Each structure stands twice: as C-alpha cells, then as structure tokens.
Amino acid sequence: MNEDNFEKLSKEVSYALRHAPREYKLELDKEGWVPVKQLISSLKEVRHWDSLTESDLREMISKSQKKRHEIVNNKIRALYGHSTPTKITKEEACPPKYLYHGTSPESYKEIMVKGLLPMNRQYVHLSEDINTANLVGSRKTDTPIILSIDTYAAREEGVKFYHGNDQVWLADSVPSKCISVVDEFNQEK
Ligand code: HQG
C-alpha cells in the first residue's frame, strides 16, 4: 500500500468508527470497539478495499502522525473524535494542570460566554501542548486563538477529564471561568 492509500484508509476508518458505523454495517460497543475482522470485511464490501489486511490497518496506525486508532485483542476503535448518537464511555483520568485548545476568533467570543462545548462531537477536545492546540485551531482559521484550561479549577467545578491519546484529552464541557487566553502566544503573531 502506498502513502496516499494509508492516508485515505486512515480517513475512512476514522469516518466509520467516529461518525458513521451504520453506513459500514458496524455496531460500536460501549467503548467504541468493533472486531477488526468485521471492519475489514465491511471495508471490502462497502468501499472496495479489496486486498485490505489486518497488517495494513496496523501499519496505517503506526505510520500516522496522530494516534487516532488502536487495536487491542482483535478489536479496533477510534480514540477520540466521535459524533455517533450514543456517547462512547471513556475512562476518567487526571490531566496535567494546564491543557490547551485552539479555536477561531469567532468561536472564542462564544466560548467565553458559554464555555467550551462539544458542538458536533461527543466530547470537547483539548491538547497537552500549545503547539498542538495551534495546529488544531489552524484547521479553522489563519489566526487561531489559543486558550488555556486550568484543569485543577475545572475539576473543582466538577468537570471530568478523559484520556484520548498521549496528546489529546477529552471533557464533557468546560466552564468559561476555568479558561483564559494564552496572551504570550497570541502576541507573538
Ligand atoms: C468550537 C482533530 C462556539 C471549538 C483535532 C472548535 C482535534 C465552540 C469547534 C479533534 C464552542 C468544534 C477535535 C462554543 C467549542 N461556541 N464554538 N461554546 N465550544 N467551540 O472539529 O477541537 O485530525 O469538532 O473551539 O486535531 O477543533 O481529526 O473540534 O473550533 O484533536 O484526528 O467548536 O479533531 O483531530 O470543532 O478538533 P471540532 P476541535 P483529527
């Protein structure tokens, strides 16, 4: 499989496991898992990935710059990003004191009023470092605003945090009083 196909495969697997399992005749369990064999036969049948093997999937996961999927005990799941109607159960975990979120100037105004909300996904997505948050925000705008989340204050407010992968943390929502703008970063531009 060439590089372009690995990227195409990663996008398709994300689409199937995060947003549209039914389109692929798949059913996610409570934690978002499906049997690897089922995903492969569905991708073959529904999307004509005719020669797809489990080792292609494993290679796709290991080559990807972001750890979006994992395979454990013959099952595969997306680690974050879900928008399916039934909320995936994630394990609560203790994040570092600060997490970051990159967003657009328009959304920033709303966020400072309503807090961070999951919008079209099941969870709010947060980054462990400022550079990653900047990349996430840059998907939406040329002038991202980087927000810092005081997770200790948020936990005192009852916010639960969940582990996505080594860079990505999830939360149900974050009140605006626990959010501030990373000024140094935004002034550098
Ligand atoms: C904004 C990618 C108005 C929020 C990335 C964001 C990430 C609000 C947008 C992952 C709001 C949702 C997720 C409020 C939040 N009012 N706007 N109250 N609260 N927003 O794409 O975090 O490459 O669903 O700021 O790397 O940008 O796909 O979330 O701009 O980890 O693996 O609503 O997706 O990963 O946008 O990105 P998204 P996100 P992958």
Automatic annotation (TrEMBL):
Keywords: NAD, Transferase. The keyword Phosphoprotein does not apply. Coiled coil: none annotated. The keyword Transferase applies. One of its GO terms (biological process) is tRNA splicing, via endonucleolytic cleavage and ligation. It holds the Pfam family PTS_2-RNA. One of its GO terms (molecular function) is NAD+ poly-ADP-ribosyltransferase activity. It comes from the Bacteria. Gene3D superfamilies: 3.20.170.30, RNA 2'-phosphotransferase, Tpt1/KptA family, N-terminal domain. Belongs to the KptA/TPT1 family. This is Probable RNA 2'-phosphotransferase. It comes from Listeria fleischmannii 1991. The gene is kptA.
